[in-house]
Design goal:
heterodimer; A: about 375 residues; alpha/beta; FAD/NAD(P)-binding domain; 2 domains; eight-stranded mixed beta sheet; four-stranded parallel beta sheet; 21 strands; about 30% helix; B: about 400 residues; Fumarate Reductase Iron-sulfur Protein, Chain B, domain 2; Rossmann fold; binds flavin-adenine dinucleotide; binds iron/sulfur cluster
């Protein structure tokens, strides 16, 4: 099968690249083994602020609401961080003292939401907090069987019965001017968080939970749907195993499911993520990129890969594949003519492109521009 | 690396990093509170079961074996295989009569076929359905697939000489459904392949692939079917060097993956020869063969990727084939389970969750409002037709319909 571009990895970076290329009329395929980092997404795109028009357009065409203003956002454990471009689920406040009193409402039996940490953090900022739980008959049935109650189990139910949830919360509400809820609303129906905000007579803030991230999964689904609507081919659950490369040019990719049926293309984008997504792997001696065997930047002494203090920044998180300034990947010191590396697989090798989701989006768009440039040549 | 090969755990369960991603994609978990979900039923449960089989949980029977958890897992844990293997190993309950009946697709077929009009009449009657509901707990909302008067095998056998005359040859694993219920699909495949100058052969007496036996707790019977099928496929694939094509994604998944992974039946020398017909046809066209299509064919088609096609990763071939037909307006439906999962949705205790699982798909179909829904699975066809009223056809039948004579 032949495409203009074949993209390895269907996370944020791969999807942004795929959507943008399809929109320019170029045919693409995305190969993605398993799901990706969006399933752990906080809702804020780190290192991005006011979105460039093409980013704003990309999300709005996918039906995903995003916003930015200067200020701070609330983190899952009650701390604050400088605002970044965020999904509409995430509230941005001018200062951390965003309310007088807050009612923190969890769901009975759901333990992936850290109400007491939130309260502790907010009280430090002078916001008085009260902690309560609510339940609904529909959620009770789940609790009976569940050794664990996960966001993705209750979120689809809450999509249907969010109005009852609002009623329960209104009963709990006294004189608080803010209500803090877990980020488990709007799994399928993206309009639910907005409706809840309108129906509760206080400032409603959705705070992050343990994964899976409900807004993150929804974002993944909407981006994938947008990509497929534009005619993109998303090969879910397939894995790029190796590549046919000749004199610095990639010709085709071998995948697990398509075995002898190679995927050919003029351009290839490697968006296979960091260690977590197995875009990079390590053994006791080295860190490697398994599909193309690209050059990876890492410290030669293994003891320098990590900091024994778990809470410190870990050096290995910055490791990534080497590229030139146009994001063309490098193998054995030689530049690959038609292979671009984008997203987390870059690690910290391109600080000018930012970090986290910002890096994923910016690098994907930069690679798309390179491909469009060569196409026009 | 060596060490890892030695220590690799069964169905990769030790690779699980407890990320819970699979739980987000399990269609049953979202509608059935009695089901513990892929993570708990799969890798978490396996840890306990290895300590003591006492921890085997009978709620594992609610797993539809749709494999969506495996497609989603970032760590390549064979979650559904773990669950089905656990059922095979630890479930000591005897399958009920109802489950034995539902699972015996080929036996039922050969019994019912000679009396097709009578059987169809009887299983269609309200009173029979009520009786089946009450006695066997087969849900009364279900329509039984109709049995066809003459089997596909008999039809093709009478044409074997004519088929042998084509320069290219393939063998066809037609499966029970084409043989007994829908020979038209088999005939459509023959029409399309003949248009590619390819003759179609039967295998030397195939048996049901056995998927329903596996999910209904009759793995010993399934293993017998597997051993038999592997040996007859070997005659075609190894001795005659033929591709073995099939039109049902569940048959293909079972023949290629479930035989070695769940039943321990080695198919390594023939696995690569077994392909979906849509993949075979696509590859022939890619290598230069051509098909001539009617100019007056105009249809709005929505393609549904069956769960087992999703797992195979081959939906793309059906999609690209359909898109090749001029005059087709194509929509790819969001990949989601229809809820039937073979015999699963036929059981009274599963009817409600089965319908709830499918609702997202049904409502998308209603809003797209296509002329035809295309999909490569017979049980999806029953479920979607029953639940939405839209006509469902295998992509091969659409291809055949669109061919110029
Ligand atoms: C747990 C976690 C939480 C995070 N939270 C945030 C956050 O809240 N905000 C933020 O800004 N950033 C966050 N990040 C950073 C995150 O990495 C980026 O935001 C971004 O989502 C990364 O996107 P990506 O597309 O580069 O990689 P990924 O999302 O990792 O996607 C890579 C994909 O490639 C697939 N893949 C890998 N190898 C192959 C192969 N050989 N063949 C086919 N497919 C392959 C993987 O299965 C995966 O689906 C988080 C990261 C992690 C690990
Ligand atoms: S196979 Fe399907 S039903 Fe079974 S656990 Fe996995 S996702 Fe759920
Ligand atoms: S998705 Fe895979 S790794 Fe994650 S919890 Fe499920 S089985 Fe474990």
């Amino acid at each position: 099968m032949k495409f203009n571009s074949v993209i390895i990895g269907g996370g944020l970076a791969g999807l942004v690249a795929g959507i943008s290329l399809q929109k320019e009329g170029l045919s693409t395929a995305i190969i993605s083994t398993g799901q990706n980092a969006l399933h752990f997404f906080s809702g804020s795109f780190e290192s991005l602020r006011e979105p460039a028009p093409r980013i704003a357009e990309l999300f709005s065409e996918a039906g995903i609401g995003i916003h930015y203003s200067e200020g701070v956002r609330l983190m899952p454990l009650g701390t604050f961080r400088e605002a970044a471009l965020s999904l509409d689920d995430v509230s941005i406040f001018p200062t951390s003292h965003f309310a007088r009193k807050a009612l923190i409402v969890g769901v009975t039996g759901y333990q992936d939401f850290f109400g007491s940490f939130l309260a502790e953090g907010l009280e430090k900022k002078g916001i008085q907090c009260r902690l309560r739980n609510f339940s609904l008959p529909e959620l009770d049935t789940f609790r009976q069987s569940a050794g664990e109650m996960r966001s993705v189990q209750i979120a689809p139910i809450l999509d249907r019965v969010w109005e009852s949830a609002v009623r329960e919360i209104r009963v709990l509400l006294k004189d608080e001017d803010a209500v803090i809820l877990p980020q488990i609303f709007g799994f399928q129906d993206i309009s639910v968080p907005g409706k809840i905000r309108r129906e509760i007579p206080a400032k409603v803030v959705f705070a992050g939970t343990m994964p899976p991230s409900v807004p993150g999964i929804r974002t993944q689904r909407l981006l994938k749907r947008r990509y497929e609507t534009l005619g993109g081919t998303y090969l879910a659950g397939d894995e790029a195993l190796s590549a046919h490369v000749h004199k610095g040019t990639v010709h085709s990719i071998v995948t697990k499911n398509l075995d002898s049926h190679y995927l050919e293309a003029d351009n290839f984008i490697l968006a296979s993520g960091g260690f977590f997504s197995k875009g990079m792997k390590s053994n006791p001696f080295q860190i490697l990129e398994p599909v193309f065997g690209l050059d990876v930047e890492f410290a030669s002494d293994r003891n320098d890969w990590y900091d024994p203090d778990f809470m410190k920044d870990q050096p290995y998180m910055g490791y990534g594949v080497r590229t030139d300034s146009s994001l063309r990947a490098i193998a054995g010191g030689e530049m690959m003519e038609n292979l671009f590396a984008v997203g987390s697989i870059l690690g910290g090798t391109r600080p000018e492109l930012g970090s986290g989701a910002g890096l994923a989006i910016r690098s994907a768009l930069a690679a798309v521009d390179e491909i469009l440039k060569t196409g026009k040549r | 690396m060596k060490l890892q090969e030695i220590t690799e755990s069964r169905h990769n369960f030790e690779e699980c990093m407890k990320c819970t991603v699979c739980t987000a994609y399990c269609p049953v978990l979202q509608v059935n509170p009695l089901y513990p979900g892929p993570k708990q039923a799969g890798p978490d449960g396996e840890r306990l079961r290895l300590k003591d089989p006492f921890f085997f949980n009978y709620a594992l029977k609610y797993c539809m074996n749709c494999k969506r958890c495996e497609v989603a897992c970032p760590s390549d844990v064979k979650v559904a295989d773990l669950i089905q293997s656990a059922r095979i190993r630890y479930d000591k309950s005897k399958p009920k009569l109802r489950d034995r009946i539902l699972a015996s697709t080929d036996f039922m077929g050969s019994l019912a076929r000679p009396f097709a009009p009578i059987v169809n009449g009887i299983t269609g009657l309200g009173i029979t359905k009520a009786a089946l509901d009450a006695t066997l707990k087969i849900d009364r909302h279900r329509t039984f697939p109709k049995y066809s008067g003459r089997s596909f095998e008999a039809w093709l056998r009478r044409r074997s000489r004519e088929q042998a005359a084509f320069p290219e040859q393939v063998a066809y694993f037609h499966g029970c459904y084409v043989n007994y219920n829908n020979p038209a699909l088999g005939k459509d495949l023959v029409k399309v392949l003949n248009a590619l100058d390819t003759g179609v052969q039967l295998l030397e007496k195939e048996k049901c692939c056995g998927i329903a036996l596996i999910t209904n707790g009759m793995s010993d019977d399934a293993r017998k079917h597997a051993t038999h099928n592997v040996s007859v496929i070997r005659k075609a694939a190894v001795d005659k060097k033929l591709k073995v094509v099939a039109t049902s994604s569940s048959c293909v998944l079972t023949l290629r993956e479930e035989y070695p992974n769940l039943l321990g039946v080695d198919n390594s020398d023939i696995r690569d020869s077994i392909v979906m017909a849509s993949r075979y046809i696509f590859e022939r066209l890619e290598k230069g063969a051509t098909l001539k299509f009617r100019e007056d064919y105009h249809k709005r088609i929505a393609y549904h990727t069956p769960c087992h096609m999703e797992k195979l990763g081959w939906g793309v071939f059906s999609e690209k084939l359909l898109r090749m037909i001029p005059g087709i307006e194509f929509t790819l439906l969001d990949s989601a389970c229809c809820g039937i999962a073979g015999t699963y949705g036929f059981k009274k205790e599963n009817y409600e969750s089965s319908q709830a699982v499918g609702e997202a798909l049904f409502s998308q179909i209603r809003s797209v409002n296509p002329d035809i829904v295309a999909c490569d699975c017979e049980t999806c066809k029953w479920q979607i037709e029953m639940s939405t009223g839209y006509q469902v056809l295998n992509p091969i039948s659409i291809l055949a319909e669109a061919l110029a004579d």
